[in-house]
TrEMBL record:
<feature type="compositionally biased region" description="Basic and acidic residues">
    <location>
        <begin position="412"/>
        <end position="425"/>
    </location>
</feature>
<dbReference type="InterPro" id="IPR029063">
    <property type="entry name" value="SAM-dependent_MTases_sf"/>
</dbReference>
<dbReference type="InterPro" id="IPR002935">
    <property type="entry name" value="SAM_O-MeTrfase"/>
</dbReference>
<comment type="similarity">
    <text>Belongs to the class I-like SAM-binding methyltransferase superfamily. Cation-dependent O-methyltransferase family.</text>
</comment>
<keyword id="KW-0949">S-adenosyl-L-methionine</keyword>
<keyword id="KW-0128">Catecholamine metabolism</keyword>
<protein>
    <recommendedName>
        <fullName>catechol O-methyltransferase</fullName>
        <ecNumber>2.1.1.6</ecNumber>
    </recommendedName>
</protein>
<dbReference type="GO" id="GO:0016206">
    <property type="term" value="F:catechol O-methyltransferase activity"/>
</dbReference>
<dbReference type="GO" id="GO:0032259">
    <property type="term" value="P:methylation"/>
</dbReference>
<keyword id="KW-0489">Methyltransferase</keyword>
<feature type="region of interest" description="Disordered">
    <location>
        <begin position="382"/>
        <end position="434"/>
    </location>
</feature>
<dbReference type="Pfam" id="PF01596">
    <property type="entry name" value="Methyltransf_3"/>
</dbReference>
<dbReference type="GO" id="GO:0006584">
    <property type="term" value="P:catecholamine metabolic process"/>
</dbReference>
<keyword id="KW-0808">Transferase</keyword>
């Protein structure tokens, strides 16, 4: 796939030109061509905004794009949608109803759209967005927290979609630079327009490409475009794509030192519904060794479009030696869950399923809980002493979850005892070392 670009800007430019030509020929909603053509210049502005290039004003963007993407006909289409028509409709909704240069009004229009007619919106909203923003507020992601050896480059997001969460991060952390990466160049073009309309071009930079290819290049890119030296790292990272893939992104983040050691905040969405088993083992599982590297908590949240659907968001804060901790091999049950979720990802991304898979989520929950990975609210709200009769265990779902909770608790207690013992031994070693 060419979106998995090897060079950054040159490949992106040729790709955008070809995509906008295709849009003009009618392969996509034709209005997309104008959005696509604007995209590279918005990126250039985001990258050079601090070096004298005048940013497109939100009003100028509205004047240029508004008439072309048909603001006068804002309505939900019926019947089959063209590719990207939904996302284009969201952009139209924002351009028609929000105030140029007002990030808060843009966020409100997106909220209203997700609540009302655009229930398919796949961005973090409601309690998910609240968990993300609370975690980011609690962390230290400010550009002023730069140290000489590891200057902070603000916040990194993997998975932009139309730029909703990037917008909210920029609102929540005023003055902090947000770098967000998106594999799909059409979504990138839409996100950049939305960000520019909100007046945030100078703070949010949307990059096109696959995380696997962009993450290793990010430090060099930031150094070249923003003047960061010598190896900037991010104070916070938000991962928002399919959970089985977080492991791969996380390995690159660690390898390239992209997250600040000691106090860096790592937030991952969809960790239950897309079963981020291997990733959670590395950052949040008792007994894995992850507690040497991260202090983690999991929050139970609900989907923006359907409050009856539970998901989990993990929040991890890096400890002083987070890049060098040794992690034990993951249990077979987690490896199997990871493999099952990966198969599901292939089916969903190839259009073979709507993405709604309650049986899988129930199995994922039971397996994760069994491994001692569960949200804070589990113990407080839903813990009931299991009646561990054989009959109940055969009941399936619920009983398995309770057993998992019990074993999870036991594992956690054992782990805490183990850690206490190790701390005492370490103190003794330190004393001996003196
Ligand atoms: C759930 S959406 C992100 C929603 C967004 N963070 C929000 O809440 O507004 C996931 C996005 O990640 C993108 N994506 C998937 N894999 C990616 C990868 N390897 N690198 C960059 N983007 C990726 C998808 O194209 C999709 O737009």
């Amino acid at each position: 796939m060419e979106t998995e670009q090897r060079g950054m800007l040159p490949t992106e430019l040729s790709l955008t030109h070809r995509l906008s030509a295709a849009a003009r020929c009618g392969d996509f909603a034709p209005e997309l061509a104008d959005v696509l053509e604007l995209s590279p210049s918005l990126r250039a502005e985001a990258e050079h905004s601090s070096s004298g290039v005048p940013p497109t004003t939100p009003a100028a963007l509205l004047a240029a794009l508004g008439p072309r993407i048909g603001l006068e006909v804002v309505s939900r289409p019926t019947g089959r949608l063209l590719p990207y028509q939904r996302e284009l409709l969201l952009l139209r909704e924002v351009l028609a109803k929000a105030k140029p240069g007002s990030p808060a009004r843009v966020a409100r229009v997106l909220d209203a759209a997700a609540e009302a007619s655009f229930s398919w919106a796949k961005f973090a909203g409601g309690s998910k967005a609240a968990a993300l923003l609370a975690a980011m507020r609690g962390g230290p992601p400010t550009d002023t927290s730069r140290s000489a050896s590891e200057p902070s480059a603000g916040v990194l997001e993997i998975g932009t979609y139309i730029g909703n969460s990037a917008l909210r991060l920029a609102i929540t952390l005023p003055g902090v630079r947000v770098t967000t990466i998106e594999l799909d160049p059409v979504l990138v073009a839409i996100a950049r327009s939305l960000i520019a309309f909100a007046g945030l071009t100078g703070f949010v930079s949307v990059l096109t490409g696959h995380s696997k290819l962009l993450l290793p290049r990010l430090q060099a890119h930031l150094a070249a475009t923003q003047g960061y030296k010598p190896r900037p790292c991010f104070s916070a990272v938000f991962m928002d794509r399919w959970g089985t893939q977080y492991d791969e992104d996380f390995a690159l983040i660690q390898e390239h030192g992209l997250l600040q050691e000691d106090g860096g905040v790592l937030v991952a969405d969809n960790v239950l519904t897309t079963a981020a088993a291997s990733f959670l083992w590395r950052v949040a599982a008792p007994g894995s060794g992850s507690s040497e590297a991260f202090a983690s908590q999991i929050a139970s949240v609900t989907e923006v479009a359907d409050r009856s659907k539970e998901d989990w968001v993990s929040v991890s804060v890096s400890l002083p030696n987070s890049r060098s901790a040794t992690i034990a091999p993951q249990p077979d049950a987690l490896a199997r869950l990871q493999a099952e979720s990966e198969k599901l990802r292939e089916i969903v991304t190839s259009g073979g399923s709507s993405g709604d898979h309650p049986d899988f989520v129930q199995r994922a929950r039971a397996t994760l809980v069994h491994a001692g990975i569960f949200p804070m609210s589990y113990e407080e709200d839903t813990w009931t002493e299991p009646q561990a009769s054989d009959d109940q265990q055969e009941d399936g779902g619920e009983a398995v979850v309770h057993m998992g909770q019990q074993q999870g608790r036991q594992q956690q207690q054992e782990k805490e005892k183990e850690e206490e013992k190790r701390d005492v031994e370490k103190e003794e070693e330190d004393v001996i070392g003196y």
